[in-house]
Amino acid sequence: MATVCHPGSGRITASFGPVAMHYQVGISICPSRHAWRKGAVEKSAHTIAQRWWRTLGDDATPAAAQASLDRICVKFDARTRTRDGVRTTVGELADAEPLRVMPAPFPAVLELERTVTNQAQIAFRGNTYSLLPGHCGEVVTVRHKLGTTTFDITDRHGA
Which run of H or of E encompasses 112? Predict the structure, then answer.
């Protein structure tokens, strides 16, 4: 994933470091050509995405599908593991590691350029917004801080 690490060096990108620090997570990058490290996770995902999904009939209701998925997840949670010399199950390990409280969204800013239509409108994320007259044909910048409900529109002069 080139957004997380440089493919050639395997080092974390400068743009992703602050995201990891904000969410207080550690990053362990798998070296290239070492698929055996990821196989267990991929196999579980394969089981859900392929084997279980194919057994679900076309006429299954969402409630029946959820019940079926819950049954297979119980089997996954019952698999035994050894951790620090003690035999335990995946479910017991998950119960011992509760999730932390979700931090505030990362303060990223989405910045896009839009051209004002002849009706003094711009399109942004599926909606159309009106601007003051006199900007028809101009290129404006839309800045939206993720997690907020407002955004700013500026022209080339910063107005």
Answer: strand 109-115
Task: Give how far Cα 2 sits from Cα of 17, 40, 46, 76, Å.
Answer: 13, 23, 24, 32
Assess contact for 109 and 136: CB atoms under 8 A. no
Name the token pair of 38. Answer: 């990821």
| Domain boundaries of the chain, sorted by first residue | 1-37, 45-103, 109-154
Give the pLDDT confidence of 58-86 residue by residue, as tens digits: 778 888 888 888 888 777 767 777 888 88
Query: Alpha-carbon distance 111 to 21, whole Å?
Result: 23
Q: For 76, list phi and psi in degrees, rounded to 5.
A: -65, -40
Query: What is the 8-class DSSP label of residue 89?
Result: E
Contact 140, 122 (CB under 8 A): yes
**Is pTM beyond 0.70 here?**
no
Q: pLDDT, tens digit, for every residue of 101-143?
A: 888 878 889 999 999 999 999 999 899 999 988 888 999 999 9
